Amino acid sequence: MARFQTLNFLNKSRKWDSLIRSLCLKLKDPEKALLLMRDCLSNLGILPSSFTFHSLIHSFASQGKMDKAIEVLELMIHDKVKYPFGNFVSSSVISGFCKISKPQLALGFFQNAVNSQALRPNIATYTALVGALIQLGRVSEVSDWVSWIENEGLEFDVVFYSSWICGYFREGIFVEALRKHKEMIERGIVPDTVSYTILIDGFSREGYVEKAIGFLEKMKKEGLEPNLVTYTAIMLGFCKKGKLDEAYALFKMVENLGIEVDEFMYVTLIDGFCSSGDIDCVFGLLEDMEKKRISPSIVTYNSIINGLCKAGRMPEADDFAKGIAGDAVTFSTLLHGYIEEENVIGILETKRRFEEAGVCMDLVMCNTHIKALLMVGALEDAYAFYKGMLAKDLVADSVTYCTLISGYCKVGRIDEALEIFDEFRNKSISSVSCYKCMIYGLCKNSMVDMAIEVFIELCEKGLELVSGTYTSLIKASFKEHGADGVLKFIHRIENLEPEVFDIVSNSAIYFLCKRGFSLDACEIFMRMRNKGSVVISRSYYSILKGLISDNQKGLGWPTLNTFVKEYGIDEPWVSKALVSYMCMKDVDKALFFLNTSAVAFPVSVLKALTKKGRILDAYKLVISAEGNLPVMELVDYSIMVHALCKEGYLDKALDLCALAKKKGITLNIYAYNSVIYGLCHQGCLVQALRLFDSLEKIDLVPSEITYAILIDSLCKEGYLLDAKQLFEKMVTKGFNPNVRVYNSLIDGYCKLGNMEEALHLLIDLKARCINPDEFTVSALINGYCQNGDMEGALGFFFEFKKSDILPDFLGFMYLVRGLCAKGRLEEAWGILREMLQTRSVLELINKVNAETETELVESIISLCEQRSIQEAVTVLNKVGSILFPLGRRCRAQSIAEKEEKIHEGEAICAVSSKYSSLNCQTDLDGRLSNVKKVEKVVDDYYNFEKGCRLPDFESYYSLIASLCSRGEVLEANRMTKVMLFDMGTGG
């Protein structure tokens, strides 16, 4: 009878076990299962089996209901039950805590279970532990546990390694992930579809889709069939690379293979189209989902909202979100979008909506909410919200602390930021980002010393050294205390790990050399040498380059010697440094070295030589070392062409243009501007105009500078009619002439005494809302003075003086000399006093003071006080001759001598329409788009150089013949005199 009762009890117990497990596993309703279990224990006196307890714990953990899972666990180990819990329960609990983003609790549970000897972990439990460590960002600690597992005699499986590899991918350490995959195979563990999918997903997420496809092919060769998740990972890789056509083709291929496409694959494709801004395709895919009866979940909707936010279509995103029951991700996405736009109203409205909706916040939403509050200036609310996170059962992570620290630092509230940083330090969270945020904040607020202390703490904790952290400290130290500040920083980190000291010191050397503090960089270099630190080749090169630039060649040679000894001449940086040093010291020796080696000299050498006024040496290097040329950009050629033209080496500039063409470099308008300037500067105005005419034929549009150069040159040579025509063409082409262009024309007309045209240009200048400058005033004063109209000159002087525009040195001199010539010495005295109080004039006189080691200002003032006006003018004339050795007066005189030739611009007009009578054999025929064309310009230059400044005999003959044929004998006679004078045969 007793046996029958026992069997009956067992049968009843099995029925309850089966019912509870059925609710857990089949109906996914662990809440009802727990109610039945409590009833069994309290009222029915039935003890469910340990397997039933395990199933219920696993069910709750799978759903992330960890409070219920722990409740069942406590029932299981209660004195009335006393079931032991093993690895199945432990791994379920650990995985459950990880599922709800509480890996710290998972780790604590594991440690307590092991320490209490209630658990002897197996490989499944250790795999769950790896998941927790990965979530905490502590994947590096897994290696320590691997040693422990090996000592326990446990066998690793593919799931353990897959979890470990996944952790490395999460941290972005791809090399280590591949290494672990290889290690797994070497241990004899065969990869499965999941492990390959993890590799494919890891590389795809970072945009290395080609690598992912390689693993896909390898997977197929090993007889493993890719599943939908595998193909989705590949599709993600295509989307990351912006290859949406390939992604869509893969999508269609999966459908053709008969694999049922799920929502997640659609979401991946939708997200890809969202990233490209193709929102129409996104809504097309959404319609396609509905046709296939795939019900879009909140995940799909959130992806669309995210795409609209990224595309800057916040109103549409907001409207779309109003039509769905949003979750934490929905509102986080909207908040983030409004934060990016700095839309305070949008932030506040979204905050109101999610508060009304009663959305259960996750950690990501909490962090976004804090960021939003900081953005709208509600710092106290943000701090209060952070403090209330524990009440929401949420633990602040590194993102939380970074957000708060950055927010407080941004508004200069460093004390509060430091308090939050201290709270972070007291947690077990390890994050380089938080240290980085604190260092940036302290540097921004000029608290470099404290920032250095934080950096030292970061290094002492053994955290990863991020380049942005120490470079920001170097920059801040330099900003606050100059090069001494950087040296002080290096001194304070001398006791850190050698590797840290070496990295930071090498960066400091490079930084200081880039800013011209090569001697201070040398001090760091010597300190490193004394400590036995590793000086990288780039640091050697930077120091040498800096010493050469600073003319410290005495220090450069021993440094170069050490560099060669330490790294050998085959090291690229050594060769580069050696060539640089030789180029700066002796170009001929450098060329000999270059011609006997395969080394190319650095482009920086050309810039350094050009900067030092050694443009011919730079030119020699480029032309003679053509086989060892570095990769020169258009800007490098342009700088050299400009410098050569400026120094008057036009033939060499054109040689360089030809070389650039040969190298496949298409010269731009800036290079041609330099050539045009060089031609004008050499007096080859017709050649310059021909080159200008040819620009449109080679698809180059002249710039404002092109027009300005030519207009100025035409004006200086007295061809004002042509200058005016070019000016009008410039305006017609849509260019806005600046004050310098107007000044060239006004100055030209004033020197000819054509004040009417000059004043008309002044009116046009003002109509274009361009302010006249001191040169404008000086030119107009000169014009009035030349015409003997001193009233007009004084009128303009006082009119512009009201607008705080005074003449330049020569403008004052024109006025003073004009007044003296009229005997109006009292007025001249007043203008002189005004002149000696003008800053620009005093600067010029002081410049002469420095050159001649005299006290000119004092002597001029003394002469003025004595009313010795003529003597003061004499001294100022001498100053003017020093400042302007050619002088504008000389130019005016030259123009006056050729007045017949330039009257109404007839002479140049006769040849400038297409410049037919001037060197007609050198017409470029628009063939300036190839090397021959540039060489043609060179030939033209040589042919033209003999009579460069003025038209030749044939040109004059054509013009004189034309005048005679029209019966203008007097004009022809005058032009003959000009011809004889210009060709040096007249007297």
Rg, rounded, reads 42 Å
Compute the separation of the termini in Å.
154 Å
The proportion of residues in beta strands is under 5%
List segments where confidence is low: pLDDT < 50 over at least 5 consecutive residues. Answer: 1-10, 887-952
How many alpha or pi helices? 56
Largest sheet: none
Q: Could you say which overall geometry the principal axes of the C-alpha atoms support?
A: elongated
Mean pLDDT: 78
Number of strands: 0
The computed structural class is mainly alpha
Helix content: over 70%
Give an overview of the whole structure.
It contains 56 helices and no strands. The model is unreliable at 1-10 and 887-952 (pLDDT under 50). The protein is elongated, with a radius of gyration of 42 Å. α30 (537-549) runs antiparallel to α31. With 987 residues, the protein is mainly α.
